Amino acid sequence: METEILSDNITLRTIYERRSVRKFKNIAIDHDTITRILDAGRMAPSAMNKQPWKFYILTEKDTIKAFSKEIAKVTARTFVKSHSGSDVIRTAIQLLHMLKEGDLFKRPDPIFHGAPVVVFIAAPRENEWAAIDVGMCAQNMMLAAKALGLDSCPIGLAKYVEQTKIFSRLQVPLAEQVHLAVIFGCGDEEPDVHKRTRNNAFFIE
């Protein structure tokens, strides 16, 4: 859709301008802004209005780096273990994708990309709709961040935090499961929009 068509609709413009950013400026985000982003997440729809999400937030640089490095270690072990010999080609392609910008696991912050805010989103393990609800919540938060002049990126690898030796520091109860994390901050890059597939809509009469 042409930019000029969207220019008079702030909601559509925010949706179309949001990008996943993996490079951030060294600028802290104040708690009031974080709360506004969380409040937007809380406005997401959820199955039977259970609002299952819980937010576990990191803002200290050293703590973020510690979790990032531990998650990276688990990710590497899990990735290799979960691929059998028959999947060698697929494994190689995925590894190349992960390492395309350099040695991912040797970076100071390999998982959270230097973002000043990391929000882990968890939900009750027994809630079968939690993953869907958390996804909608995360999208609300990312759009709210964009509307507030910030950037974001969903981090699926963050679910491996439960397998790290420092997981207890998050204080997530055993009855809850971490589904993903979302990082927020002042972006230091402007990624191009990826081409969108448009032959995937089917009108049924």
Number of helices: 6
| Multimeric organization | single chain
CATH superfamily of the domain at 19-72 and 106-185, please? NADH Oxidase
Distance between the termini: 26 Å
N-to-C series of helices and strands: HHHEHHEHEE
Strand content: 5-15%
Question: How does this structure look, described?
Answer:
The protein is built from six helices and four strands. It has 205 residues and is an alpha+beta fold. It has a domain at 19-72 and 106-185: NADH Oxidase (3-Layer(aba) Sandwich). It has a four-stranded antiparallel β-sheet with strand order 1-2-4-3. Helix 3 (31-42) crosses helix 6. It is globular. The chain starts with a helix and ends in a 20-residue tail after the last strand.
Concise summary:
This protein has 205 residues and is α+β, with helices and mostly antiparallel strands. It has 6 helices and 4 strands, in the order H-H-H-E-H-H-E-H-E-E. It is globular, with a radius of gyration of 18 Å.
Features:
alpha+beta; 6 helices; four-stranded antiparallel beta sheet; NADH Oxidase; 205 residues; single chain
